[in-house]
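Quick question, first post here. What does this chain look like in 3D?
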Amino acid sequence: MQLTDSFGRTIDYLRVSLTDRCNLRCIYCMPEEGAPIAPKDTLLTDEELVRIMRIAVSLGMSKFRLTGGEPLVRPGVVKLTREIAALEGIQDLSLTTNAMLLGSLAGPLADAGMMRLNISLDTLKPERFQLLARRGNLQQVLDGIAASQKAGMQPIKINCVVMKGYNEDELVDFAKLSLDSPLHIRFIELMPINWSESTDTAAMQGFYSLSGASTGQNDRITLYADIKDNKLNEAFRLPALSDQKGMLNAVEMRRSFISMTEMRKAIESELGVLTPASLLTNGPAQTFHLQGGVGTVGFISQITQDMCKQCNRLRLTADGFLRPCLMADGEVDLRTPIREGASDEDIADLFRLTVHHKPLEHRLEDGLAPIGRNMSQLGG
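> Answer (accepted):
Ran it through. Tokens below.
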């Protein structure tokens, strides 16, 4: 059995948030203090998570990525990984992490069945790490990367969110990591989770000039509806982002945006032409080689050249809501039915419902973005 959405896409990939907690406070993701987190009793238990993933496998989903927040701060994460990896039918199990805890956990995770990693790292400068992440230190991350390589997990991708005025001067340094090491560097266009708050027209026009003007079309499916009417549940349960202090606001995010085209030009001007390459489990990235490079350089350009029409994924939040799209509000509650005794087939029907309402593409170019949750709460 396969899950197929209303646009004919096979949905076989589930991103599973293990927690909305994090041991860093990156400026584009979380406020420095007072980050809203779900009460512990609302977080899915290990048993509930494994059950949901087993149901997902029965529906033809075979690719799973564990995310957060920072997934490695979840107690018992190695044991949970082992239980998930044991599910028959899982073909790909991966983890997105900031690597702060990987120094001690990389080996046990690999032994438990973790296949590959995406490591978030936005700077190679120790002092700048403190500015951007506001917790921890760069050496812990580098130690985690080294431990992951020693543990044999492959491929290891380094995800760098590029921000004008913050770290765009490090593009070449990051790209050089792919020359002598089998690391796969991914430069990510900043996705402003809260840009819809602002009415700064000039800033929005500046953004449009990079991403392309809005089409003005209104042919997407409805993103907000009532689950009781067999549609999606609208969810605005958490504090507004405008009430969360100490992170980039909407205008600052727009002004920090730098496009894939600009990134590529800066790299090629110093390191030579990037030639197309392929990589297993490439996801939404456009991937290239530098001449003589052992690894690869890639770009995830969900703003200027999005890959939405090939999207094959759903997202499960740490508190048990299934989302058809990262960058649009609307989600289905799985936790409540599970705790009220729903059968596996009842939960499978909620998967089918979510897939049926998966939108064709995000509406970021129209200034529409999720405002009910932070990125750390979405499992981005």
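The first helix runs from residue 46 to 58.
Residues 222 and 349 are 19 Å apart (CA to CA).
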